[in-house]
Amino acid sequence: MKSLTISLGAVLVLIGMSTASATDFEAIEARLASLVPDMDQVVINETPLPGVMQVQIGGDIVYMSEDGRYLMQGRLIDMETQADLTDAAKAVLRKEQLQNLDRQELVTFGQNDAEFEVLVFTDPDCGYCRRLHQQMDEYEDAGITVHYLAFPRAGVGSQTYDKLVSVWCAEDRQGAMDVAKAGRTPTPATCENPVTTQYQMGQALGVTGTPSIMTFEGDIIPGYVPPDRLRERLEALNGNRGN
Question: Given this model, what pLDDT does residue 22 score?
C-alpha cells in the first residue's frame, strides 16, 4: 500500500475550495480522487450518525458529509454507550498491521500459555517503562505475558536506539533487557535487527509515548498500568468482544 503524499490538513483546505456537489459514496470518492494519489487506500463506511460517513485514508480515519462537501477530524463518541467509534475503527486497522508481526522478533517475558498477552512498545530510558519492567513477575502472576517492541523516543540513531539494538542483538535478549531497564548499558552488539521497523510501526499505529500497551486485537492502552488493573482492563475488553 502506498503512503499518502498529501496531509489531511491539505485535503481539508482543498475540499473547502472545491465546488463539486455529487452525492453518496461516489460523491466522496469524486471529491478525494484528485487529492489522494492511490484511491485503493480509501475505504468508506456508514456511521450511526445520519449524513456522516467514515472515511479511511491509509491508516487515518476521518469523517465526511455524504455529499462530500465537509471533512471532519476527531473522535466520534456514542454518548449513550460511551463507545469510542473512532478508536474501534482504528483498532481494526491496528489489528491488521499486528498480524504481520514475527513473534521471533519480540522480547518476551511470561508463560507461553498465559491467559492474556500484550504488546508493549518500550524505551529503556523511560521511567514508567522501567517501573513496568520491575513488576514483570507480578504481570506473570496476573496471567499476563508481555511482548516487547522497540520504540526509542529519541529516534533512530540515538543512544537509546543503540541500547535497543544491543538488546535485540544479544544472545540473551531477556538478560540484556533487564540490564537496559535497570539503567545500565547492555553489552554493545550489532546485527540485522527489527528496531527501526518496530519504531516505524509504532508511529504508524499511533504510539506517541512509552510504555504503550496493545493487544493483538488492536486495542491500545496508553501509559503504565499496574498488573491487577491491566488484567481488569483485558478482562473487560474480552467481555466486550463476547469472549
Answer: 39
- Rounded to two decimals, the pTM is 0.75
Q: How far is CA 102 from the centre of its chain?
A: 16
Class for domain 102-240, per CATH?
alpha beta
pLDDT, tens digit, 9 for 90 and up, residues 73-129:
999 998 988 888 888 888 888 898 898 899 999 999 999 999 999 999 999 999 999
- CATH number for 8-80 (one of 3.40.190.80, 1.50.10.100, 3.10.450.70, 3.40.50.300): it is 3.10.450.70
Q: What is the dihedral of CA 231, 235, 240, 243, to 10 degrees?
A: 140
DSSP 72: E
Give the number of other CB atoms < 10 A from CB of residue 130. 18
Per-residue pLDDT at 241 exceeds 70: no
Q: How far is CA 128 from CA 107, 134, 136, 227, in A?
A: 18, 10, 13, 13
Domain boundaries, the chain: 8-80, 102-240
The whole-angstrom separation of Cα 49 and Cα 54 is: 10
